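Before our next group meeting I need something from you. Please put the record directly below this note.
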Amino acid sequence: MVWNSGWRLASAASNSGILGLIGSGSMYPEVLREHIQKCQQATHKPFGVNVPLLYPNIQEIMDIIVEEGVKIVFTSAGNPKTWTTWLKEKDITVVHVVSSVKFALKAQEAGVDAIVAEGFEAGGHNGRDETTTLTLLPMVKEQIHIPLIAAGGIATGQAILATMILGADGVQIGSRFAASVESSAHQRFKQAIVEVKEGGTQLTLKELAPVRLIKNKFYDQIQKLYKTGPTVEQLKALLGRARAKKGMFEGDLDEGELEIGQISGLIHDIKPVAQIVEDLLKEFEAAKSRVLEL
């Protein structure tokens, strides 16, 4: 949710009765501090911060989280052993995002409080093995004994129920909230999300860090380069810097990296967070009633 989940989205989510997360991956440390403080002013309910562990200034980011009194941290894209104990010693609940059973077991061993198992349907950076949420969830559930949160391809109440039937204790939803009024993404990117059809996204750049994005002009440039048998250096040169910011935050739909999940094919409108949450709960209850009638 880089460039999508700032304090407005996180606080709106928490005020709607779910757990809002600030996406720190697109923020310099002092920008993160500002978003945490504004979120604290906008909601009195719990919220957390998602921290990709591969980013620079990680010590400064963690220090700010502690200084500002954040009590929930979701870590991703790195070794959970590096920070889990440090965070838990400061009375912070730690959840780690994984894309495989192997990494779920490593996260559990590191002492995290819960695990997010994210299938490759998810938008943005993803697992290399391309394991779907439907397959990944029961495999992880079979091996771990701590709470399991499902992610990837979830944007409806029916999907929430399905993941819980497969063993999830809760869900993490990204793409549906990227297309919300409170998302910090550019309006053009939000509109692009609702216009995506089935097959309109693709997982690519696995040699660097696998990422699912909308097929646009930049994606076509990647595919053209692949036909030449590029080196990693050539792929990095094409990617350049700030592609995600250019696409999602600045609204460049041609040259930007437009990260979104496969489920965007089911997202048809841009709504306030409170309405999205209400819709999800109604869909969930209706789906549960149908299942009970079978």
